[in-house]
Amino acid sequence: MRLLHTSDWHLGRSFHRVGLLDAQRDFLTHLVATAEEQRVDAVLVAGDVYDRAVPPLAAVELFDDVLHRLAALGIPTVMISGNHDSARRLGVASGLIRSAGVHLRTDPAGCGTPVVLHDEHGDVACYGLPYLEPTLTQTTLGAGQRSHEAVLTAAMDRVRADLAGRPADTRSVVLAHAFVTGGRPSDSERDITVGGVESVPAAVFDGVDYAALGHLHGCQTLTPRVRYSGSPLAYSFSESEHRKSMWMIDLDAEGAVRAERLDCPVPRPLARLRGTLDDLLAAEAHSRHEDAWVEATLTDAVRPSEPMARLARRFPHVLSLAFDPEGAPDDPHTGYAARVRGRTAQQIAEDFVLHVRGGRAADAHERGLLGDALDAVRARSTETAGSGAAR
């Protein structure tokens, strides 16, 4: 069984205000061509099809077009909703389009009901676990706690229970959208922290032959059977060192996995440059970056005049400019974005309490209240997106 694993398309997203629809269209064309040339048996899309719950029309048209093209080739597609998607919107008409070989899995209650694929060696049960917001899915899944690990474990219990009732030679694949322990994040993923705990152990997926993961934007292997495909395009400069790709997965008759990385088209390389303005403008080593999207961090002791305009003369695609004077003391006026970078919503809220109370930190009870409030806001946002209300 040959499977093409991809995720995190984020259709409709831009890169520092540069539209990416053409690049996303090129990627989807590449995906369809790869699926045809490599004679894949199914395409797996592990969530975050769109970048937001109510995507722009052009993004919806791209999505519609790629599904038509895959269906015309007779290649089944199994797809789950991610934390950026509106599960309800993405799942509209899923029953109707199933006959065309497009299998949308957006309802947590259906975690234990697989799409069954067939080859000369028998059945492959393919289970779709959409992004599971703990506050909204704990009761549905019968999870003992309100956490990512608890709801994902409950969902996998349903998968294993269904597998136990199938012939012993049935191979199995799971699609999931989560932050699994050991994965390396980047700056472009939306925080999914709940109660201060966001990651789940890879052992949650024990018992299946392959887990096709989405959410983290870097392609990575957690175990030979548990992998992230990563996003097909870079969505932040933190991904400048990423090799954007998809996984070609071959399952043999016994369920052994052979994986091969297939590169995605690169619309324009990324470069993160650091130094004084004069150095960046003169250094021969930077010549190879003159056609790249550039993030420049200037280390001049005094801010030079018109730095962006001067940089743009050498690097016409410079998109981001920051200042970090070498040897300068910590700047009390550092921007908010820089001060909270890498911190969870829970940590930011606790820091606020510490600040306004003059150095007295939140106690355990107060931290619990903050966590409950953040969970409630996240759940309400998810429900609002799914109902189609304005965000």
Q: Which short descriptors sum up this protein?
A:
single chain; 391 residues; 6-stranded mixed sheet; 19 strands
General description of the model:
The chain is α/β, with parallel strands linked by helices and about 400 residues long. Helices cover about 30% and strands about 25% of the residues. The strands form 5 sheets. A 6-stranded mixed beta sheet has the order 6-5-4-1-15-16. The radius of gyration is 23 Å and the shape is globular. It starts with a strand and ends with a helix. The model has no long low-confidence stretch (mean pLDDT about 90).
Short overview:
This protein is an alpha/beta fold.
Q: Please provide the ordered H/E string of secondary-structure elements.
A: EEEHEHEHHEEEHHEEEEEEEEEHEHEHHH
| Computed Rg | 23 Å
The largest beta-sheet arranges its strands as 6-5-4-1-15-16
In angstroms, what separates the terminal alpha carbons? 42 Å
Q: Quick one: how many beta strands?
A: 19
* Helix/strand class: alpha/beta
Compute the average pLDDT. 91
Summarize the main sheet.
6 strands, mixed
Q: Which residue ranges are poorly predicted, with pLDDT under 50 across at least 5 consecutive positions?
A: none
Strand content bin = 15-25%
Q: What is the general shape?
A: globular
Number of helices: 11
Helix amount, in percent? 25-40%
What are the SSEs and their pairings?
Elements: E1 2-6, E2 14-15, E3 18-19, H1 21-37, E4 42-46, H2 57-72, E5 77-80, H3 87-90, H4 94-97, E6 102-105, E7 115-119, E8 122-129, H5 134-141, H6 148-164, E9 171-177, E10 179-180, E11 199-200, E12 210-214, E13 220-223, E14 226-228, E15 245-251, E16 257-263, E17 270-275, H7 277-282, E18 293-298, H8 307-314, E19 318-323, H9 336-340, H10 345-356, H11 364-387
Parallel strand pairs: 1-4, 4-5, 5-6, 8-9, 9-12, 10-11, 12-14, 17-18, 18-19
Antiparallel strand pairs: 1-15, 2-3, 7-8, 13-14, 15-16
Helix pairs in contact: 1-2, 5-6, 10-11
